[in-house]
Amino acid sequence: MLIFREEQLGDEAGIREVNLSAFGQTIEADIVDCLRTKSSCQKIAFVAVLDLRIVGYILFTPIIIENSRNILTGMGLAPLAVIPEFQGQGIGSNLTKIALESIKNKGYPFVIVLGEPSYYSRFGFVPAYHYNIISEYQDIPQEALMILEFDIEALKGISGIAKYQPEFSEAV
After folding, report:
1. Which residue, 12, 96, 106, 134, has most beta carbons within 10 Å?
2. Cα–Cα dist 142/134, whole Å
C-alpha cells in the first residue's frame, strides 16, 4: 500500500537511497544530508512509502528573494525524487500536490523551484522572470527558475535574486 507522510526520524537511509537512485549521482543526496546535519533552517519534507520502502521524497527549505530594498522569504523545492522503477506512476505528482498544500497552509507566500517547466507548470508554477526574479546560479536556463505564488499581495512589486540555502552551493 502506498502512503504519503511527512519525513520522520529513521527515514534518513531510505531518503538517501531514493536520491542516489533517482539522480544517479551523490550531489542531491549530499545536499539533503548536509541540510539535515549542518543547517538549522526550517525544513518541510514528505516521503512516499510503498510496503515499508521509501520510494519518493520531496524537500522544501527557506529561500529568499533579495533586492536592494527588501528581502522576502518563501520556500524552495529541491529535491523531488522518485526511485526510477516507480517513476511515471504519479508518485512525484502526488508528493508535490500534498507538499504544496502543506506549504500554502503554513502561510508561506511562494515556492520557487529550479526544474523542468513542462513538469512544474502542471502545479501552477510560472517562469520567475515574469516577476523579474532571477536565480543566484548563473548556469541555469532562465525558464527553469519557476515560482508558484500563494500570497499575491506579498509578491507585489517584488523582484530580485532568488537565493537557496548556502548548503546547495556548498554541495555542488
Report:
1. 96
2. 7
